[in-house]
Amino acid sequence: MFAPRQWFRRGALAIVTAVAIATISIAPAHAQSDVHILVAFDESAGQNTEGIALDRTGDVFVSVSPLGDLWKIPAGSTTPQPFGHVDGVVPGRDFGMLGLAVDVFGNVYAAVQSADPAVDGVWRFDRRTGDASRLPGTSAIAIPNGLAFDTRGNLFVTDSAAGAIWRIPWGGSAQVWLQDPALSGDGSLGLGVPLGANGIAYRNGVLTVTNTERRTILAIDRSRSIDVVTTLAGNPDGVAMDVFGNAYVAINLQDTIARVAPDGSIGVIASGDPLDFPSSVAFGTAGGQRRTLFGVNFSLSEQFGLPPGFGPAVFTVDVGAPGVPVP
Which contiguous run of DSSP H or E holds residue 218? Predict the structure, then answer.
């Protein structure tokens, strides 16, 4: 997650976003795949899409960050429908609704940052009604960002400002699971606060985490041991895993989806138009879509001095390997 140029306040701290544009130089692992637009959103209406997750039936859920909205694209459809909403997100002040995850029952979870302490935290949306309730203890998370379930029903949440990962046990309250300098930002993006741990994904007992400012991909096992898989030339955001242990990473300002192999080698899956500040990725779940990577354009490039791009959208790209099944 990168935020638009905006102010938000946590206690007495005011933050202004001013991102330095980094270059990226990554050797292609193979011929780049074609990117297909599934659904385009209306940026003029504030519909900047930041997070994405799919349930077991192939329904696609998308967070519309500045509006605090959760939208659903039913399996096989290209028509998004309003599904849920969190009051108290103020466009231009808050990061809003960010990362998403879906539990084994089909309920949807969203990380929400707001200067309003009654809003900030992780929210659960009922799979039938879309009714929202905040998970206990999550109001203490500074900037809740990425979400990932393990196979035991634990929900892990990256805290981008605190350089931490929180764990929410099934039916329990959020607690800090790991806080480490490797998860912290270094201030290199000039945000006023460090922007560290961001995207997160689970596979075979290991959490893969991106650190946006340090440009690292981290592997964290159950013992909380941290290994640096690789360091990128650009700043990574969301991440998803295939069954072979490859990580697929959204790199915002470079309009790139990269693949990071377990040995740390890096290749380009797709880059350029129609990618437009891609922020989150997730694998397809329905029949015939396990090798399809879904993603969203956050569409903030022009706010950082780049030409306007395609605009906010949900896109797909065939990556040739099946994703890790939804826990």
Answer: strand 216-220
Tokens 């706010």 belong to: 303
Is the pLDDT higher at 35 or at 21? 35
Return the pLDDT at 186.
94
Integer CA distances (angstroms), 137 to 162, 167, 171, in order: 15, 10, 12
Which pTM was predicted? 0.91
| Predicted confidence (pLDDT) at residue 146 exceeds the cutoff of 70 | yes
Spatial strand order of the sheet with 60-64 comes to 49-54, 60-64, 69-73, 81-85
Label residue 326 by pLDDT band (50, 70, 90). Answer: confident
What DSSP state is assigned to residue 200? E
Q: 132-141: list long-range contacts, CB under 8 Å, 24+ apart.
A: 132/84, 132/85, 132/86, 135/109, 135/168, 135/173, 135/174, 136/172, 136/173, 136/174, 137/168, 137/173, 137/174, 137/175, 138/166, 138/168, 138/174, 140/174, 141/111, 141/166, 141/174
Cα-flanking dihedrals φ and ψ of residue 182, to 5°?
-65, -20
Q: Is omega for the bond preceding 4 within 30 degrees of 0, making it cis?
A: no
| Residue 288 neighbours by CB under 8 Å, 6+ apart | none
The per-residue pLDDT for range 32-59, each reduced to its tens digit, is 669 999 999 999 999 999 999 999 999 9
CB neighbours of residue 24 within 10 Å: 18
**Cross-strand bridge partners of residue 200:** 209
* Whole-angstrom distance, CA of residue 122 vs CA of residue 70: 13
CA distances from 95 to 7, 53, 72 (A): 9, 18, 20
- Structural domains in the chain, CATH included, are 7-18+41-318 (2.120.10.30)
